[in-house]
Amino acid sequence: MRPQAWGGGVAALLLCIAFAHFCVRIVPADAPSSPRSPGSFRPAQSAETGELVVPVEGVPPSALVDTFTQARAGGARPHDAIDIMAARGRGVVAAADGRVEKLFWSEEGGRTVYQRSPDGRRIYYYAHLDSYAPGLREGQGLRRGQMIGTVGSTGNADDAAPHLHFAIHEMRPGEPWYGGTPINPYPLLRRQ
C-alpha cells in the first residue's frame, strides 16, 4: 500500500468517527416519535448528572446568568428568579418531574405554569410564556425535559427581550401553589 493511500484512509476513518460522535443520535426503539407532544418524554440533556435540566431547549448551563438577587420594580422587590434569554417560540421544558399544579395568567408573569414536584416540596414557576404546549392541562404529570410551552414576553416582560422567568419555591405541607419560599435556581441548574 502506498503511504498516500494509507493516509487518506486514516483521514476518512477519523471523519467517520467524528461524524458518528457529533452528528448521530441513537434513539431507543421504544422512544416516543414526537418529543413536542404534551404527553411525551424528551430525554434530558444531562439527566444522569443533575436533578434539573435547563428549562429552555438549546440553552446550556454555561449560558445562564444569576439574576436572583437583582432588584425589580424600581428596587421595590427582589427578582427571586432567573431570566433565561432565548428567541421567542423556543421550547420550554419541565426542569424536573412533577405535575401541573396551575395554569395561570397574571399581569406580571403573563402566561404561566406552576409545577409541583412529586414529593410536594417544590413549585417550579415558568413565566412570560408565548404559548402552552398543545393539550397541557392542570393535574397532568410531567417528566423532566417534556415540552410545556414556548418562550415569550407576556405579562410585564419587554417585547424586545423574550425570555423565560424561572423560579423555584420551597413549600411547606399543604401550602398553596402561590406560596412558598424562593430559592435560587441558578446553582441547581449550573451543577449539570
Automatic annotation (TrEMBL):
Biological process according to GO: proteolysis
InterPro entries hit by this protein: Cell_wall_metabolism_enzyme (IPR050570), Dup_hybrid_motif (IPR011055), M23ase_b-sheet_dom (IPR016047)
Record keyword Calcium present: no
Cofactor: Zn(2+)
Domain of life: Bacteria
Recorded coiled-coil stretches: none
Keywords: Hydrolase, Metal-binding, Metalloprotease, Protease, Zinc
Domain called M23ase beta-sheet core: residue spans: 78-184
CDD domains reported for this sequence: M23_peptidase
GO MF entries: metal ion binding; metalloendopeptidase activity
Protein name: M23ase beta-sheet core domain-containing protein
Species this protein is from: Sphingobium lactosutens DS20
